[in-house]
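Quick one, tokens below:
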């Protein structure tokens, strides 16, 4: 079958420091060591968003020596302890992550699954996919199946269609979600044909992963419009990243911009304790300050939950700025402008 445009783009991606050095003037010293441990790939489109060395796009996709730091955990969420079969992570009773793809259009340097995403041991066999579907079919408490990886939308249409059809046909599965970064890094993947295919598997929720307002381009906007026009409900998961988006003005511009392209901010993730990503971590305090700065000035639709995913697989917990304080019989509530209001609460 003829190659699709997006498959050609993947082939033309930059996958080595040497290739990158042909485009930019930077010091490549030792970076090949990083790339040997954690793969790199930058699509031609995403490469085109880099305006200069070290900018917020560059930092998300170009290897950095600090990735070799030994601190942190290889599998911070203990996902492997919650994998009844290799392709399924089952931590909450009613929903599972289904790992359907081992690769991504561009490799994010801050990825929680960087221990295996893009590496050969992440390649998922047909037998593992089949075992994943059998597991979901055999566990009637599973209502919600989240296609993840890697990036599910790197699968060819025919494979994706087959997997979606099998999961959709399981009577107790009520909704399917897809987690994908291709609207950000490879928007040409969102073809009309893909949208027609996805449309068959309603209710379908798609969460994408914009981290910076500079990623909200015309092409990304058109990709999201095609998905939304197909009736797919779009959300976004942003990771709070030091030196990239950890400022109230950047975050509010990002979240407002997402609403304009019909994408609802769903989660702002605190960085996990993943090995090789420590240089991206912010304090929880600065995350809470950013959340507080949104309250009031920014539409409620543009205020996602700020969540931390706890170590040892204890799950996600929302982190919320402190707005209430009990003082004896009195309940004090802090308004968004900082003033304190006494509120007549019931005693129970
Ligand atoms: C995040 C996550 C989910 C989905 O959680 P929601 O809060 O429902 O979005 C499901 N399973 C695992 C293992 C997760 O880490
Ligand atoms: S797209 Fe997602 S899974 Fe892939 S490298 Fe980025 S964060 Fe990791």
């Amino acid at each position: 079958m003829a190659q699709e445009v997006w498959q050609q783009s993947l082939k033309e991606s930059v996958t080595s420091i040497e290739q990158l050095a042909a485009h930019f003037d930077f010091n490549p010293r030792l970076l090949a060591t990083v790339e040997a441990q954690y793969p790199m790939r930058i699509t031609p489109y995403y490469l085109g968003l880099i305006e200069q060395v070290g900018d917020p796009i560059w930092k998300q996709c170009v290897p950095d020596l600090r990735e070799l730091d030994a601190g942190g955990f290889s599998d911070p969420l203990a996902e492997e302890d919650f994998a009844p079969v290799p392709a399924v992570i089952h931590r909450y009773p009613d929903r599972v992550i289904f790992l359907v793809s081992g690769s991504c259009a561009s490799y994010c340097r801050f990825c929680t699954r960087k221990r295996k995403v893009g590496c050969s041991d992440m390649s998922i066999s047909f037998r593992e996919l089949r075992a994943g579907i059998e597991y979901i079919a055999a566990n009637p408490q599973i209502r919600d199946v989240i296609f993840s990886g890697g990036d599910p939308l790197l699968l060819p249409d025919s494979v994706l269609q087959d997997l979606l059809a099998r999961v959709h046909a399981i009577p107790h599965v009520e909704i399917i979600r897809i987690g994908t970064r291709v609207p950000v890094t490879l928007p040409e993947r969102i073809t009309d044909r893909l949208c027609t295919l996805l449309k068959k598997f309603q209710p379908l929720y798609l969460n994408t992963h914009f981290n910076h307002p500079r990623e909200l381009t015309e092409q990304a906007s058109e990709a999201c419009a095609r998905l939304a026009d197909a009736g797919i409900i779009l959300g976004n998961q942003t990771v709070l990243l030091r030196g990239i988006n950890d400022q109230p003005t950047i975050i509010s511009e990002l979240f407002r911009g997402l609403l304009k392209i019909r994408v609802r901010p769903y989660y702002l993730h605190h960085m996990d304790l993943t090995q090789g990503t420590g240089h991206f971590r912010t304090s929880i305090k600065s995350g809470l300050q950013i959340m507080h700065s949104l309250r009031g000035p920014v539409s409620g639709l543009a205020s996602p939950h700020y969540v931390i995913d706890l170590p040892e697989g204890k799950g996600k917990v929302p982190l919320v700025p402190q707005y209430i304080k009990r003082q004896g019989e009195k309940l004090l509530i802090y308004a968004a402008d900082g003033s304190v209001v006494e509120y007549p609460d019931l005693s129970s």
